[in-house]
């Protein structure tokens, strides 16, 4: 796609002076000379209206936005609501994807020209057109801060990942709080290693005892929670790391497990301890992910059963010895209880470090994929792998290589114009120019080509693609070094950097291929690494880091990816938004393609897809051979991928990444601490840099599973003399996304309010939401909680008349006159609300028994007439048009939409998915790397 030629452009390249330089000679791949990439796209106007499914309120509305026809409704909604800049309803508001892409890419192109990246203006135009084509066609995406900030009046922050540093001084600790707060305020996350802070077992210079790092974690946690509450709807994203030889390591390991015990006690006492609950804020350490930085020395002591020394921070002397296996078990037990701490393998991380002469790698970003120097940052971009799968099921290697070149060039340009939250981070990032290219849709690519995620063939493809991506990235980095110079810290780190390049190339040579697809990819990767080593020896490298695998939460939805990052598919049945509102469940589009690839005929494909649509899995699907089941294994569901399957996939790609991998290894609820020990031990042996686990239902703040444990069933069978009585449990009947509703504005004693009551399409009240005008935050929270409680009760079958009996005639202020002719006086807001609901939804006979009448009914009584005569009996069966009532209701039940893929999975599994609800729109989120992403609005739980 490019070659280096002598150019006449001049530029500083960030190096401090103008001199003639070479430039990139660009070649077109996706575009045509004389034709703007936008002109090849069919565009259409759409209305974006996003609602909160819990109460039907409108979260966001912008009409007449412009997107390509092939963009899904969901992708367009997320980009419009999250990335378009300008106040809604003003001329300054962006209203087209063209404006968004132009705003960003024009800055990249202009900066590239000014800094001598291109040989001629024509090459700059080719760069501009190629980049715009790739973004509009969802072939790749920059990380969210780029879309938020570039080309706006805001600081041009392009990085999503930050690493901070703290020393054993109070001034440094307070500075840490401040820097972290600035990063959180901007919507990003950071990580830090607290191991320099002396332990609570050491003395201060004054003679007193030190507080220890865990004590200072409390202040940082409170700060993170406060900034999150004041400025954003998502939780702050942060990582806290402590070295395994720190004397306070046992306290650090237990922090979140102890808090989980506190959560259980408070929950049992009646406090609201769900994720996002009003009482969860009283619990400490909930805003951070915790990781222990373990050494090879410690892991060998675990293997051999030896002692391990804990060292004083100031002198380095051993002040205590502990049993390594007991300490390791303590980590596994804590992770079993609350999913923290994760592990980071220190010696492996630093063995692959390109800049050890500058300093060690001590910490990571919140999701553990960015690992580099303290006080540094990394900007990310991810490739949509499925875009390179041709119709003949071959991988387009040439286009993948050329796109990777393009992305690395653009990402390096961005560091030249970027702003940073602190001066220290800015200095380090400009000096080392860390990049984080990665990919999404790996799981979908493997399934579409008939490869099981947990298979040698699947891992071979993933490894070959990752090797090719990183090899091309560093080869392009070496080419850029010839044009605009190597990174400032390269000279002092030249030898270790080149050593790491040779390690990557050697790992590529050791890669075992399985079939034609990965053989072709691997052959090109080998060529790229050879050229990378040759050019790097000659020119050096422009970037200290090139690649990692991020969660790709929001940008994965922007690119219409079926799977995020390195993850497998979540489930076989997905949730799709429809034009004009509403949604439907669909079987993943990669499944028919996979079945055809495996040799099934069209009739068989249709039958299998229909079976999956009904059951959510492939077990016993008609005509599907058992040996093909594994191709359709997912992260959750009937055939969930085994925990070690995730670890093996991570190990396959880790040698080809500069950084690490954002991924959580999920374990079933039945897993033991021994299982977690084994995962942590294998992660070290297989050469991973970082590893986190999550055991299903280990957190109180998550929804609980409704499935019975096998062990409980077995013990019941073992005791036949005990009669087990199955008590029928109520089943929640959720409302569809589109439901009839009545909104009532009311006044009680001068206090104004609104009530929205929604009902099922066939019959019955199912949801009530209340809002009082000018209320304080406490009353607002109480009314919200009350509304949710009533709505859930209605959906579980609590009769409305039961609520009416309990709340009618309840007395408290405000009370008095209302503006409702049917309810002229109310003894409280509750009294009015349930009288109004009774009038709207209860039959006359039931209301009469409660003494609740409308104005017309009271007038009839005054005239001596029977109010019942006002209510004619309607033959509902006579209203049926083309189908009997029973048939219509059955259709409604079958087509009742779910709110996300997690909800869809729940309906097939018969159990609750372990995922939080989105704080923005109420939709159940789904895993994305080591965090969660909302399919409804694109919000994430901390990862950009």
UniProtKB/TrEMBL annotation:
Organism domain of life: Bacteria
Molecular function terms, GO-annotated: ribonucleoside-diphosphate reductase activity, thioredoxin disulfide as acceptor
Biased composition (Basic and acidic residues): 886-909
Domain spans labelled Ribonucleotide reductase large subunit C-terminal: 159-694
Coiled-coil intervals, chain numbering: none
Domain TSCPD span(s) in chain numbering: 736-840
EC number: 1.17.4.1
InterPro entries recorded: RdRp_reductase_class-2, RNR_2_N, RNR_lg_C, RNR_NrdJ/NrdZ, TSCPD_dom
Cofactor: adenosylcob(III)alamin
Residue segments, region Disordered: 1-22, 885-909
Domain Ribonucleotide reductase class II vitamin B12-dependent N-terminal residue range list: 48-138
Pfam families the UniProt entry points to: Ribonuc_red_2_N (PF08471), Ribonuc_red_lgC (PF02867), TSCPD (PF12637)
Catalytic activity: a 2'-deoxyribonucleoside 5'-diphosphate + [thioredoxin]-disulfide + H2O = a ribonucleoside 5'-diphosphate + [thioredoxin]-dithiol
Family: Belongs to the ribonucleoside diphosphate reductase class-2 family.
Function: Catalyzes the reduction of ribonucleotides to deoxyribonucleotides. May function to provide a pool of deoxyribonucleotide precursors for DNA repair during oxygen limitation and/or for immediate growth after restoration of oxygen.
NCBIfam families, sorted: NrdJ_Z, PRK06556.1
Protein name according to UniProt: Vitamin B12-dependent ribonucleotide reductase
Organism of derivation: Microtetraspora fusca
């Amino acid at each position: 796609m490019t070659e280096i030629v002598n150019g006449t452009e001049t530029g500083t390249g960030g190096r401090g002076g103008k001199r003639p330089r070479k430039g990139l000679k660009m070649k077109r791949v996706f575009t045509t000379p004389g034709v703007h990439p936008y002109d090849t796209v069919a565009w259409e106007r759409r209305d974006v209206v996003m609602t909160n499914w819990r109460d039907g309120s409108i979260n966001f509305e912008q009409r007449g936005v412009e997107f390509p026809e092939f963009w899904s409704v969901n992708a367009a909604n997320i980009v419009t609501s999250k990335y378009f800049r300008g106040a809604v309803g003003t001329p300054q508001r962006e209203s087209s994807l063209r404006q968004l892409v132009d705003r960003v890419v024009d800055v990249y192109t202009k900066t590239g020209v000014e800094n001598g990246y291109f040989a001629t203006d024509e090459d700059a135009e080719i760069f501009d057109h190629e980049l715009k084509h790739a973004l509009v066609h969802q072939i790749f995406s920059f990380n969210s801060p780029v879309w938020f900030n570039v080309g706006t009046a805001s600081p041009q922050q392009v990085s999503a990942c930050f690493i901070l540093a703290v020393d054993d001084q109070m001034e440094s600790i307070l500075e840490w709080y401040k820097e972290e707060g600035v990063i959180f305020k901007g919507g990003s996350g950071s990580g830090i290693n607290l191991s320099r802070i002396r332990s609570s077992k050491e003395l201060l210079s004054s003679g007193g005892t030190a507080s220890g790092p865990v004590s200072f974690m409390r202040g940082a946690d409170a700060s993170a929670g406060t900034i999150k509450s004041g400025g954003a709807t998502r939780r702050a994203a942060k990582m806290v790391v402590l070295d395994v030889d720190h004397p306070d390591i046992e306290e650090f390991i237990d922090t979140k497990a102890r808090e989980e015990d506190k959560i259980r006690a408070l929950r049992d006492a009646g406090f609201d301890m769900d994720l996002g609950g009003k009482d969860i804020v009283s619990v400490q350490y909930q805003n951070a992910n915790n990781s222990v930085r373990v050494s090879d020395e410690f892991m060998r002591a675990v293997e051999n059963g030896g002692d391990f020394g804990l060292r004083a921070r100031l002198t380095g002397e051993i002040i205590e010895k502990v049993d390594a296996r007991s300490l390791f078990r303590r980590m596994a037990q804590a992770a079993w209880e609350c999913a923290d701490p994760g592990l980071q393998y220190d010696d492996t991380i630093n063995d692959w470090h390109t800049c050890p002469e500058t300093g060690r790698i001590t910490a990571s970003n919140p999701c553990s994929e960015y690992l580099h120097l303290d006080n540094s940052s990394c900007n990310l971009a991810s490739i949509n792998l499925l875009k390179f799968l041709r119709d003949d099921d071959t991988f387009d290697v040439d286009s993948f290589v050329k796109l990777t070149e393009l992305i690395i060039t653009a990402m390096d340009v961005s560091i030249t114009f970027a702003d940073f939250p602190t001066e220290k981070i800015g200095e380090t990032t400009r000096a080392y120019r860390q990049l984080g290219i990665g990919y999404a849709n790996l799981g979908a690519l493997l399934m579409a080509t008939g490869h099981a995620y947990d298979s040698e063939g699947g891992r071979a493809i993933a490894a070959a693609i990752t090797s090719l991506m990183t090899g091309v990235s560093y080869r392009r980095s070496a080419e850029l070094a010839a044009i605009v110079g190597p990174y400032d810290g390269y000279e002092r780190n030249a030898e270790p950097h080149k050593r790491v390049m040779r390690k990557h190339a050697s790992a590529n040579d050791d890669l075992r291929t399985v079939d034609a697809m990965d053989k072709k990819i691997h052959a090109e990767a080998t060529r790229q690494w050879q050229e990378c080593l040759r050019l790097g020896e000659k020119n050096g490298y422009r970037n200290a880091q090139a690649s990692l695998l991020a969660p790709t939460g929001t940008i994965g939805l922007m690119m219409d990816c079926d799977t995020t990052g390195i993850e497998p598919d979540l489930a076989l049945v997905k949730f799709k938004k429809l034009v004009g509102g509403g949604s439907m469940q669909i079987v993943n589009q990669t499944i028919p393609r996979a079945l055809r690839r495996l040799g099934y005929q069209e009739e068989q494909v249709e039958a299998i897809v229909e079976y999956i649509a009904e059951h959510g899995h492939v077990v016993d699907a008609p005509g599907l051979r058992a040996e093909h089941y594994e191709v359709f294994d997912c992260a959750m569901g009937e055939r969930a991928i085994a925990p070690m399957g995730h670890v093996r996939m991570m190990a396959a790609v880790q040698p080809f990444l500069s950084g690490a991998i954002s991924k959580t290894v999920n374990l079933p609820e039945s897993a033991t601490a021994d299982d977690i020990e084994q995962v942590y031990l294998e992660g070290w042996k297989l050469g991973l840099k970082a590893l986190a686990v999550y055991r299903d239902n280990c957190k109180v703040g998550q929804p609980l599973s409704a499935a019975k444990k096998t062990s409980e069933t077995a013990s019941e069978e073992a005791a036949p003399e005990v009669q087990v009585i199955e008590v029928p449990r109520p089943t929640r009947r959720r409302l569809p996304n589109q439901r009839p509703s009545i909104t009532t504005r009311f006044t009680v004693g001068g206090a104004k309010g609104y009530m929205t009551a929604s009902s099922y399409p066939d019959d019955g009240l199912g949801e009530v939401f209340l809002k009082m005008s000018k209320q304080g935050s406490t009353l607002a929270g109480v009314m919200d909680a009350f509304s949710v409680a009533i709505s859930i009760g209605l959906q579980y079958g609590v009769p409305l008349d039961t609520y009416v009996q309990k709340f009618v005639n309840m007395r408290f202020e405000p009370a008095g006159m209302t503006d409702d002719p049917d309810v002229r006086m109310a003894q409280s807001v509750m009294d009015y609300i349930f009288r109004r609901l009774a009038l709207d939804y209860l039959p006359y006979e039931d209301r009469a028994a409660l003494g609740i009448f409308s104005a017309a009914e009271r007038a009839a009584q005054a005239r001596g007439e029977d109010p019942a005569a006002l209510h004619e009996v309607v033959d509902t069966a006579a209203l049926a048009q083309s189908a009997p009532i029973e048939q219509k209701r059955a259709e409604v039940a079958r087509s009742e939409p779910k709110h996300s893929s997690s909800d869809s999975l729940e309906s097939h599994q018969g159990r609750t998915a372990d995922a939080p609800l989105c704080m923005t729109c109420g939709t159940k989120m789904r895993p994305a790397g080591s965090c969660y992403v909302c399919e409804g609005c694109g919000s994430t739980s901390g990862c950009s």
